[in-house]
Amino acid sequence: MTGPVVGPVSDHEVDLFGLPVAALTSEQVVARCVAAVERREVLEIGVLNAAKVVSMRRDARLRESLLGCDLLVADGQAVVWASRALGRPLPERVAGIDLFTSLLEVASERRLRVYLLGATAEVLAGVEQVLAMRYPGAVLAGSHDGYFAPEQDDDVAREIGRAHADLLFVAMPSPRKETFVDAHRDVLAVPVLHGVGGSFDVVSGRTRRAPGWMQRAGLEWAYRLLQEPRRMWRRYLVTNTLFVLLLVRERVRPSAPYRDPRRVA
């Protein structure tokens, strides 16, 4: 893709940084997921935060994977603030981990089949224990850790397809999770596909989530920085600075919407 191409967005989307972001509440997104399961229609959910806004500018595959999602939600509070600053406000943040736990509640109520993909075997075992204890009605259709080589992608995708899951939760780093799901969505044969990032670590208890006031203040990144300062300081310093610069540029010269390559005639 050589540059952005002007294209329309729907009544339920706003254009932010050239991407169509769902202007829906968390409750509305969950309702969309339930409808997809009932109709056996594929609904691939993507999550957008400041880091992805920055990265997708130079990573064409990540950008195309985000465009290929059926529903792209604002996972980061910074994206919600940016939408308001740009005069295209989103109703609220739809955090990936909150959507994950909400869908697990739905799975427990409706006895839906859940497949867990990602993280280490130890973390995965912890999530499975939480699933059994807190969401007893949910059926574990299968699980697989996220440490497999790209040449194993096809085998893992076929394994998931054979599990006949209703919900697939993918906890692998970006853009790995986006590209895996985008390349294999037909083989996976799962109605709802949701990339949950580091949610498995939080749900399993391996890491702690920021307190509610820090979430509302958009400071979850700072809480994570405090937990892993050596690994995260450079990433957040660079990413946050570039995101602010991109926001300033968007106010002056908005990006034309990128077009989903799957839908180009």
Describe this structure in words.
The chain is α/β, with parallel strands linked by helices and 265 residues long. It has helices at residues 26-39, 50-55, 60-67, 77-85, 96-110, 121-134, 153-162, 176-188, 199-204, 212-216, 220-227, 229-252, and strands at 13-16, 19-22, 43-48, 71-74, 113-118, 139-144, 167-171, 192-195. The strands form 2 sheets. The protein has a 6-stranded parallel sheet, sandwiched between helices. Strands 1-2 form a two-stranded antiparallel ribbon. The model is unreliable at 1-9 (pLDDT under 50).
Please describe the structure with a list of short key phrases separated by commas or semicolons.
12 helices, alpha/beta, 50% helix, 265 residues, 15% strand
